[in-house]
Amino acid sequence: MAVTEQEAAKSSHTHLVMVILVVCFALCVSLLFVALRFWCRCIIGFSYWDDAAAVMALLCIVGMGSCILTLVPLGLNDPTGTLPENKTTPFYKCTYIAAFFYKEGLFWAKMTFLLLYYKIVTLSYWRSVYLGAIMVVVLWNICQILIFFLQCAPLEAVWNRNLRMKCVANRLELAYVCAGINILTDLVVAILPLPVIWRLNLRRSQKVALSAAFGLGCLPQLWALAEVISALVCACIPTFKPLVSKINAIIIGRRRNTTEFVLEEHRSDVEFNTGNIRNNEGLSEKPTHSRVYGSETLVAVEQYPWQLN
């Protein structure tokens, strides 16, 4: 029994460290990408609406990460999956709040994409399409909020298992429908900019790069915190052109300096070798040039006067 308890304690500690490291790493990645986004915006100018949506997504990620960290002392790191009786209610309550931040984080990440599309496209037809997509996503988010808070009554019974609650029928099927619609909206957000990109007067490589940058919107089909973070990271990447340009300039500058240094060394070697050849040839040949003596007399004078007769 003592060995079992030691193994359980060790496993619990491992789970605790893993949860804390994953959450902290995820939060750092989110903060880094949003900070890079705003650094790029300082160069090219702020667009406000999509940047504000990115900040809202970041706040939701911070809220969700905080809830996950709060769940650790409540029993999240317990490898047996059992909860103490006195921690059951706060555990489920914190889980419920984390789920709300999860849904809202995905919503604001999608809005970051759509508002960016609406801003950069000038064609009236596609602006109408993007505006329609924004309205659909907003209305669907309102529906999800209503479902989230009204699917059971009273709401407190969701985390307090001592209370009786009445819930809508077929809750599992309803969850599947919501997940399917979320996946569909993710795919639509990823596909929407592609027709405009491929009609631009750009090289094929640039079109592929832009399609890849905007197409990252389909990646957030992951799980929980990682899904929201990947959505926010992918929403920030299309704004990183100033950062990429600066990195390319640094790389090209270093290559240019290296090339100039190599060419300079090669030129010095060539000049040195040429000088040696000329000196060697000068011993056998007698190069001459004209000098003027007086006003009209041109005399061919050898460069080696000691050999004059």
From TrEMBL:
GO terms for cellular component: membrane. It is found in: Membrane. The keyword Secreted does not apply. Signal peptide: none annotated. Residues 36-218 form the Rhodopsin domain. It comes from Fusarium phyllophilum. The chain crosses the membrane at residues 16-40, 52-76, 96-117, 129-150, 174-196. This is Integral membrane protein. Belongs to the SAT4 family. It is a multi-pass membrane protein. Keywords: Membrane, Transmembrane, Transmembrane helix. The keyword Cell cycle does not apply.
